[in-house]
Amino acid sequence: MFTKLGLQLYTVRDFFMGDDYVDLTFRKLHEMGIKELHTAGMPFSYELLGNLCKKYDMQVIGSHYDYNAILNNPEETKKIHDFWGTKNIGIGAMPMAARENKENLLSFIKEFNSAAKEYAKDGYKLTYHNHHFEFLRIDGARTLMDYLYEGLDPETTSFVLDTCWVAAGGGDVRHWMEKLAGRIDILHLKDMMLRNEGGKFCATMTEVGNGTLYWEGILKTAEEIGVSHYIIEQDANFAGGNALRSLEFSVNFLKDYIK
């Protein structure tokens, strides 16, 4: 259903303990067949990332970038993303203040759209990545996600929809994918499972194919709505505490869906 498999680099952050370790990690990702990368707060230079992508035949397809830099230092932000070769400039979540009430949320949406309009003049698109909190009813009736869907400009912004976080928030993954058709360039592939912690049942993220999400349906819908980039992400709950082991499990599961 897709030709290239990608990774959100936050998944393997524990292996970024120095430039040599970063290189070794990228070599392992290359051996696994990872072709595309989504960035997030890396503890090494943007130049090193670009150079390693060239070395290991990978492509940066978007970022989770500092929101203040996006707003206040657009030229440097564009320069870095140009070096990486991507026009997708994103944030991992909205500022805390925007989550507090409807007025702050609407102010954030207005600010985000204003910045996106300026970036769009040079061909860039601002992206927004969801968590579960966006499914809270911020005004007693509609959720933050409803306001984002209605308020963000579909011409200059797009969503990085995270499958696990949608489900964790009580949303239907395929419904939101269909609702946002044409507005999802990057899809985060993350599974969810139920775990018994001392008699308390907790939903937690897990490897793709190791949880309860319906991947055949999700990936079919993704193809139908024109998703361009399929990006594995796992924040925590790694197999044996090892993110690369978990990633290998997800990659092996998803290989059956590669065209």
Structure description:
- The chain has 259 residues and is of the alpha/beta class.
- The protein has a single domain (5-257), classed as Alpha-Beta Barrel (TIM Barrel).
- The chain is built from 10 helices and 10 strands.
- An 8-stranded parallel β-sheet has the order 3-2-1-10-7-6-5-4. It has a two-stranded antiparallel sheet with strand order 8-9.
- α2 links the parallel β2 (34-40) and β3.
- It is globular, with a radius of gyration of 18 Å.
Element-by-element helix/strand order: EHEHEHHEHEHEHHEEEHEH
Q: How many DSSP H or I helices?
A: 10
- Give the second-level CATH assignment, the architecture: Alpha-Beta Barrel
CA-based gyration radius: 18 Å
Please list the strands of the largest sheet in the order they lie side by side.
3-2-1-10-7-6-5-4
| CATH fold type | TIM Barrel
Strand portion: 15-25%
Keywords summarizing the entry:
TIM Barrel; 259 residues; single chain; alpha/beta; globular
Give a quick rundown of the structure.
By secondary structure, the chain is an alpha/beta fold.
